[in-house]
Specification:
- Helix 2 links the parallel strand 2 and strand 3.
- The chain is built from 8 helices and 10 strands.
- The termini are close together.
- With 216 residues, it is α/β, with parallel strands linked by helices.
Length: 216
């Protein structure tokens, strides 16, 4: 079984991007405008970090836009290699995004709440390039769309992974103490983390080192 890939999210500077890559990240997450959560930076900085990140490292734009045309417009400001859609795409017009941005990968976030999340993931997996399973809740008055630092029911995530044919990223409370258990249960393509490798909001080299040293 190949080593699980790691995406470090909430990157806020070119220096943080370099540090994450130095320790082994194969992807970085760049957080656009959100209703809540950590790591939000402006589009100009997202563009700057994405432009300075060397291939084959993937750069993910996290967008809370829920309309395909708005997502296309957001991406054209930043030019990342990947779009991570953190809320439900209201019009389900994924094909419009793919037609307009044929070289950009689409990753849909599914917030794993219950069995309905499994059905949603299976349906949407036919329309995107990867699924990312997280612990937010878009049903709250102020939507929580990631960065919770909380785990969810990994058995549901396992069920999703077993029933779809595209890569699955696992997010939500992943840290050095539980990452190997999470991988054993879910067997994701990659894991995604933010708060567990930070101190006072800043990427912490010692925590990165501890995480990657622990990772099987």
């Amino acid at each position: 079984m190949p080593k699980t890939r790691v995406k470090i999210c909430c990157i806020s500077s070119t220096d943080e991007a370099k540090l994450a890559i130095q320790y082994g990240a194969s992807a970085i997450g760049l957080v656009g405008k959100m209703p809540s959560g950590p790591g939000i930076i402006d589009d100009e900085l997202i563009h700057q970090i994405a432009k300075s990140t060397p291939p084959p490292i993937a750069t993910f734009l996290l967008t809370s836009e829920t309309d395909s045309n708005a997502i296309i417009a957001h991406h054209k400001k930043v030019n990342t290699s990947t779009i991570q859609i953190v809320d439900a795409l209201s019009d389900r017009q994924y094909h419009l995004i793919k037609e307009e941005l044929p070289n950009v990968k689409l990753v849909q976030v599914i917030h794993v709440l219950d069995e309905k999340s499994v059905d949603e993931a299976i349906e949407i997996s036919k329309l995107v390039d990867a699924i990312l399973l997280d612990s937010g809740n878009p049903n709250l008055a102020t939507k929580v769309l990631g960065g919770t630092g909380k785990t969810h029911n990994w058995e549901l995530s396992k069920k999703i992974r077993e029933n779809i044919d595209i890569p699955v990223f696992l997010a939500g409370g992943i840290n050095k103490d539980n990452v190997n258990q999470a991988i054993e249960i879910v067997q994701p393509f990659g894991v995604d983390l933010c708060s567990s490798v930070r101190t006072n909001g800043q990427l912490d080299e010692s925590k990165l080192d501890a995480f990657f040293t622990t990772l099987i």
